[in-house]
Design brief:
5-stranded mixed β-sheet; 2 helices; YaeB-like fold; alpha+beta
Length: 102
């Protein structure tokens, strides 16, 4: 499986990284980055490892999520032989459930 990231995922990763570094320090940031890499590699082997996210999934598009580190979440879709990472967010921050990833 290949990994691809949307612009929203790239920005979300930066925002979560900044939030973690600012509020919890460099050590927590490194752990978040390491866990992101580990989860990404695990998803290449087992793409359905994440839970189906009922809040954003539709009949046409299934979104999955994994908790990367403590309360930091990665949302993704499986499209043929590609895992498309669509967003990163931290549940300690304000989020909008049922986000539109289009």
């Amino acid at each position: 499986m290949k990994i691809a990231r949307t612009p929203r995922a790239i920005e979300g990763f930066r925002e979560v990284s900044s939030y973690i570094a600012h509020n919890f320090g460099v050590r927590a940031l490194r752990e978040f980055q390491l866990r992101t890499k580990e989860w990404t590699n695990a998803l290449k082997k087992m793409p359905k490892l994440g839970s189906i996210d009922e809040a954003v999934s539709t009949e046409e598009k299934e979104y999955r999520s994994v908790v990367i580190y403590k309360r930091s979440v990665m949302e993704y879709r499986i499209i043929e032989d590609t895992i498309l990472i669509v967003d990163f967010y931290d549940t300690r921050r304000s989020i909008t459930l049922g986000q539109n990833y289009e």
